[in-house]
Write a structure and sequence with these properties.
The chain has twelve helices and twelve strands. It is of the alpha/beta class and 332 residues long. It has a domain of 204 residues: NAD(P)-binding Rossmann-like Domain (Rossmann fold, 3-Layer(aba) Sandwich). A seven-stranded parallel beta sheet has the order 3-2-1-4-5-6-10, with helices on both faces. Strands 7-9-11 form a three-stranded mixed beta sheet. It has a two-stranded parallel sheet with strand order 8-12. Strand 5, helix 5 and strand 6 form a beta-alpha-beta unit. Bound molecules: nicotinamide-adenine-dinucleotide (NAD) and thymidine-5'-diphospho-beta-D-xylose. Nicotinamide-adenine-dinucleotide binds next to helix 1, helix 4, strand 5 and strand 7.
Length: 332
């Protein structure tokens, strides 16, 4: 495939780029990324070593730039990771979320339509289903998003499904649960708490700390996404989850234990507005593609926290400047 990976300079997109270059050595991989605060060229250091890798700085909302890249590299597959992704930012400033996550997706679908692209994989999230007290969500469950972020991601999914229904486009949707691993921007729970603990700063735990997420190690998510791209039935939706439901308190204590830091660093703060209580996915459908997660949660958390301990040069610059402005607004 001659693949365009949008949002490939971010956390998951950069791991997926590495996986594709490693496992599909004859393919061309073009990363197309706006390089927002979350996009980081350092995430593509490994990819840059490959002769089959190209980078284009561009915005998925810029129709002409998308078409240019598609034509220049004779793209025949697109995987769309590009999105505004942080729920707290969507609560403070929702507009960019609607633009990139809905309009940007629609612009990519127009490119698929106009240029006879053979496969389009939309990277979505378990958050589009909303919160679930018990049990797991299946792909046929209705969408009930509750934050401006998840509503925008649901809007993107609906565009994809409408383009399938109306124009018969060769689309796929993958809905992943909470990812963690190296190179995740240190505003998300695990990298924020690991890096704060390393700096002996407070860990701001929202509400009662009992909100639950289904955690998946990023390498397991990427192998699932690759299985969907290669073997998924066109028009299909696939949940990709780790099956590791943990409360935020459990995650917090786990990080402190790995780093040998005291529980006194935990600071209970006001709850996130509209905070979803629990996410959990059924992954039976994705497993029919021959995929299953390989990492245990304990191994993956240990590996991840140690990565942040050993890569201060990667995250320290990110926790200054624009980040501090956001952080002050968040906890003012
Ligand atoms: P991230 O915030 O680390 O990276 C997003 C990337 O998209 C950045 O490189 C950024 O520069 C780029 N980008 C943003 N707006 C763009 C635009 N208009 N045009 C081009 N590029 C743009 O995100 P992530 O955590 O790696 O998430 C990637 C995708 O996976 C997103 O679609 C997200 O909704 C989805 N997802 C993430 C998780 C998770 O736990 N992180 C879970 C499920 C689904
Ligand atoms: O400082 C914090 N304190 C805290 O208690 C932060 C940043 C988070 N939390 C809580 C909120 C959530 O219950 O931790 C949980 C996880 O929070 P995030 O890391 O912000 O993730 P979440 O809101 O669950 O969304 C993530 O998973 C699904 C990604 O950011 C999304 O992009 C993805 O779609």
């Amino acid at each position: 495939m001659r693949l365009l990976i949008t949002g490939g300079a971010g956390f998951i997109g950069s791991h997926f780029t590495d996986l594709r270059l490693r496992n599909h050595p004859r393919d061309l991989v073009v990363v197309f990324d706006k390089l927002t605060y979350a996009g980081n060229p350092a995430n593509l250091a490994q990819a840059k070593k490959s002769a089959n890798y190209r980078f284009v700085k561009g915005d998925i909302c810029d129709r002409a730039a998308v078409i240019r890249a598609v034509k220049q590299y004779r793209i025949d597959g697109i995987v769309n990771f590009a999105a505004e992704t942080h729920v707290d930012r969507s609560i403070l400033a929702p507009e960019d979320f609607a633009k990139t996550d809905v309009l940007g997706t629609q612009i990519l679908l127009e490119a698929v339509r106009a240029h006879k692209i053979k496969k389009f994989l939309q990277i979505s999230t378990d958050e589009v289903y909303g919160s679930i007290e018990r049990g797991t969500f299946k792909e046929i469950d209705p969408l009930k998003p509750s934050s401006p972020y998840s509503a925008s991601k649901a809007g993107g999914d609906l565009q994809v499904l409408a383009y399938r229904h109306t124009y018969g486009l060769p689309v796929l949707i993958a809905r992943s649960s909470n990812n963690f691993g190296p190179r995740q921007y240190p505003e998300k729970l695990i990298p924020l708490f690991a890096t704060n603990a390393l700096e002996n700063k407070a860990l701001p735990l929202y509400g009662d700390g009992m909100n639950t997420r289904d955690w998946i190690y990023v390498a397991d998510n990427c192998s699932g996404l690759d299985a969907v791209l290669e073997k998924g039935l066109l028009g299909g939706i696939y949940n990709i989850g780790g099956g590791n439901t943990r409360t935020n308190r459990e995650i917090t204590y786990g990080i402190l234990k790995i780093l040998g830091k005291p529980e006194t660093l935990i600071k209970k703060v006001a709850d996130r507005l509209g905070h979803d209580r629990r996410y959990a996915l059924s992954t039976a459908k994705a497993r029919t593609l021959g995929w299953k997660p390989q990492w245990t949660f304990a191994q993956a958390l240990q590996h991840t926290v140690e990565w942040y301990r050993d890569h201060t040069a990667w995250w320290q610059p990110l926790k200054s400047g624009e980040y501090l402005k956001y952080y002050r607004q968040q906890y003012k």
